[in-house]
Amino acid sequence: MKVRLPASIYRDAEIEIDADEITVEELVKILSEKIGRDLRKLIIRNGDLSPFVNVFINGKNVRHEKGLKTIVKKGDEVSLVPAVAGG
Amino acid sequence: MVKLDRSQIRRYARQLLIPEIGGRGQEKLLEASVLVVGAGGLGSPVIQYLAAAGVGMIGIADGDEVDETNLQRQTIHAGNLGMNKAESAAQFVEKLNPDVKVEAYPFSVTVENARDLVRRYDIVVDCTDTFPARFLLNDACLLESTPLVHSAVLRFEGQIMTIIPHETACYRCFLPEAPPPGSVPTCREAGVIGVTTGFFGVLQANEVIKLIISKGELFTNKLLYVDLLHNDFNLIEISKHPSCPACGERRIKELRSEYYVETCRIETD
Q1: Cβ distance of A51 and B225 shorter than 8 Å
Q2: How far is B178 from chain A (nearest CA, A)?
Q3: Is residue A87 included in any domain, yes or no?
Q4: Residue range B26-42: average pLDDT?
Q5: Residue B194, number of CB atoms within 10 A of its CB
Q6: What residues of B are annotated to the active site?
Q7: Residues of A with CB below 8 A from B42's CB?
Q8: Handedness of CA B108, B72, B67, B79 (dihedral sign)
Q9: Which of B 60-99 lie inside 8 A of A, CB atoms?
Q10: pLDDT tens-digit map of A18-60
Q11: pLDDT by residue (tens digit) across B62-79?
Q12: Which CATH number belongs to the domain containing residue A61 in this structure?
């Protein structure tokens, strides 16, 4: 699975994670270890998906699926879309 | 209905040739009214292209003054350092196209004035630069059933979505709350380049024109997120959500000042 991290969250990068089937929560943990920055503080709040970061799997918002328990499969594309406010 | 005179037929000749616009579409543009909130990086191209296309009435709200750090991206304020941005933008519009009536509101949109301002216009364009202002406009447009075209930018990145109140996903369906102050960088802290605001502002103007002429497709129930540094374009589905704090089953009934501080959370009663 491929994870796209925008510059406003982490220096712009596409990160490959080698796993067959994991939850979004597990993905965030593996991703944090891989980039050396704890993304859990940003993405998880009170055990749930934070209300100000959106996680999309193949263009679908996991907030409207099972949140952190949503399953990510091999070959899926995951995008993190942060809140930005500039104008 | 507005009838085009000879000089208007000449002025708009190139867009009158487009089948989706034509004479009827141009008349609709001349009859339309649009409120642009924020005359900065996004507002500059929005105001410029809507005025050029002949949108008949443009309201511009901005409480800030033009300063030197604005000029690398805010392209309509030449020679107006120190002037209020709404008034500077209005001056630009008057020079560009005499067909356009322009109303400058030299103050910020607030909980007290938002609904009254929004109510006077057919469409609102969110060109603001803070989370509270964005949530306020979203909620005011829902309450007044006024379409809203949202965009936000940072560095080389930006996003755009169009909201048809109660029909399509609203801004809070995408983002229920704002990040705690200080947790996400602003343009002042992390920077922005004029091409990013230009790119997204032009897309916003295009959404407004399509809304007015009722043609084409909109960024409704979807959000376009683009990283212009890597030419990475992502079109993401956003669903209208029953638990949305603004437009869901327990939708908001009024604007309250406590909804627009810190994380802009709506506490349901």
Answers
A1: no
A2: 6
A3: no
A4: 98
A5: 16
A6: 187
A7: 87
A8: negative
A9: none
A10: 999 999 999 999 999 988 888 888 889 888 898 888 899 998 8
A11: 999 999 999 999 999 999
A12: 3.10.20.30
Boundaries of every domain in chain B: 32-260
Domain assignment of residue A31, given as a range: 2-82
CATH of the domain spanning B32-260, picked from 3.50.50.60, 3.40.50.720, 3.40.50.1820, 3.30.460.20: 3.40.50.720
CB burial of residue B116 (10 Å; 0-12, 13-18, 19+): exposed
Is residue A24 situated within a structural domain? Answer: yes
State whether A54 and B174 contact (CB < 8 Å).
yes
Q: What is the ipTM of this complex?
A: 0.81
Within 10 A of B152 (CB to CB), how many other CB atoms are there?
A: 26
B131, B138 in Cβ contact below 8 A? Answer: no
In tens, the pLDDT along B161-184 reads: 999 999 999 999 999 888 877 777
Exposed, middle or buried by CB within 10 Å (0-12, 13-18, 19+), for B100? buried
Compute the average pLDDT of residues B100-121: 98
Beta-carbon separation of B238 and A42 below 8 A: no
Residues 122-161 of B with CB under 8 A from A: 126-131, 134, 151-159
